[in-house]
Design brief:
mainly alpha; 18 helices
Length: 420
């Protein structure tokens, strides 16, 4: 029986949108893992690693090359809106007044794992050369590997903090502020990396100059104009305003892609330029649809690129090494500077346990590096598995860190008066 393209697409949409959410809401799952972990795993299960092996005919019909064409555009749109939402969540005001703690933890939590990851990447490039993509030199691969290990996912971290009841605590505010700086540094590093991949030092300069120009227009023209129009009160976001915001998003993403920065970075920058009262209104209208309806399509395409086999020692070795280095360097690179800045031990170690969280942001970065030829399919698969593992471990690690640190302090949950 020949199935129509419309029928195949609707079955795909049904599986991708409803399946992960239903599984996440099943008994006990949402208590141990954020939904993003379930979405990523669901995409991997529907890929060649499992469904393609168990039921190749079904997989070929639903997720073979010819059936994926309608999903490609939805995947692009999903990641553009996700990057935009990440920018909307970034609030510079959250970083003010937190002094040494934010500065020390934000820089250290990015720099330490990135540098350690780059060193690990050089070793991986030498021992497991198949992990590097066709466009990668050992140095370029090492830099990309380091960036991947340095990521902390701001939106997923926010979701975990909400699920743990820490959003309104000083610990939660510090974690979000540090993750926001981490994300901003990530995009700068990624822009430089993409520039280097496309043509060396001159290309890096031109690419970064294009990024500075886009940022100058967004923050020097667009943001002041929007602020003057809306004032300090939350605006009423009608359909015309929402379409205008979407036009700004898509135009910025297109210009960013044209200058070599990648459309995802442009979408993120567009989100940072939206004034906070307007950002809150946009989030109310767009966030749920993006995360629950659009992003599953992106994860399907991600899962279809992941090939996991039990007889691939190289993949599992890189996965284990990357996971261990990420957890150790993020934990120590966050908790120790926090302690030096005056954060009590109980919260410093919980903060360190929060910062390895990867989630959506890591998958976006990995997709960019795969498309740029810096990662191979095997390297991409190993690091996607790392992202899933460390994100799933975030909540258990926070609970464990809190229990281990309780012997050193009597600080109540979230009461961190020592922040400076």
């Amino acid at each position: 029986m020949l199935l129509s393209p419309a029928f195949v697409f609707l079955i795909q949409a049904l599986l991708l949108i409803v399946g992960p959410f239903a599984l996440w809401r099943a008994a006990g799952v949402r208590r141990v893992a954020p939904m993003v972990v379930v979405q990523i795993l669901f995409g991997i299960v529907l890929g060649p690693s499992l469904l393609g092996r168990v039921a190749p005919e079904v997989w070929g019909t639903l997720f073979g090359a010819s059936a994926l064409a309608p999903l490609a555009g939805l995947g692009w749109l999903a990641v553009v809106f996700f990057a935009f939402l990440t920018g909307l969540h970034l609030d510079v005001a959250d970083m003010r007044g937190r002094g040494r703690a934010v500065a020390a933890v934000a820089v250290s939590s990015m720099a330490v794992p990135t540098l350690a990851g780059a060193g690990t990447g050089l070793w991986v490039a030498d021992v497991f050369p198949a992990m590097a993509g066709p466009a990668a030199t050992p140095t370029l691969f090492a830099a990309g590997f380091g960036v991947c290990l340095g990521v902390t996912a701001l939106p997923v971290l926010g979701a975990i903090l909400r699920e743990m009841g820490l959003t309104s605590t000083q610990l939660g505010a510090l974690a979000l502020a540090c993750a926001a700086v981490n994300d901003a540094l990530l995009w700068v590093a990624l822009a430089a990396l993409l520039g280097a991949a496309t043509g060396g030092g001159g290309a890096v300069v031109l690419t970064l100059a294009g990024g500075v120009a886009i940022l100058a227009v967004l923050w020097g023209v667009v943001r002041p104009w929007l602020s003057a129009r809306i004032g300090n009160q939350p605006p009423v976001l009608d359909d015309a305003h929402l379409i205008g915001i979407c036009a700004l998003l898509l135009l910025t993403a297109a210009v960013s892609e044209a200058v070599g920065l990648h459309y995802i970075l442009g979408a993120f920058l567009a989100g940072t330029a939206i004034p906070k009262p307007l950002a809150a209104a946009v989030l109310t209208r767009v966030e749920s649809v993006t995360t629950l309806v659009l992003l599953p399509f992106f994860f399907t395409l991600t899962g279809l690129r992941v090939t996991v086999t039990a007889d691939s020692p190289e993949l599992w070795a890189v996965f284990l090494v990357a996971s261990a280095v990420t957890i150790a360097t993020k934990l120590l690179g966050s908790a120790l500077p926090a302690r030096l800045a005056g954060v009590p031990p109980y919260d410093a170690w919980r903060l360190g346990a929060l910062m390895p969280c990867k989630g959506l942001m890591e998958v976006v970065v990995l997709t960019v590096l795969l498309e740029a030829g810096i990662l191979s399919g095997a390297g991409f698969s190993a690091l996607v598995l790392m992202a899933v593992a460390v994100t799933a471990l975030t909540q258990p690690m926070v609970h464990l860190a809190g229990r281990l640190a309780q012997s050193d302090t009597k600080t109540p949950l979230g009461r961190t008066a020592g922040f400076r």
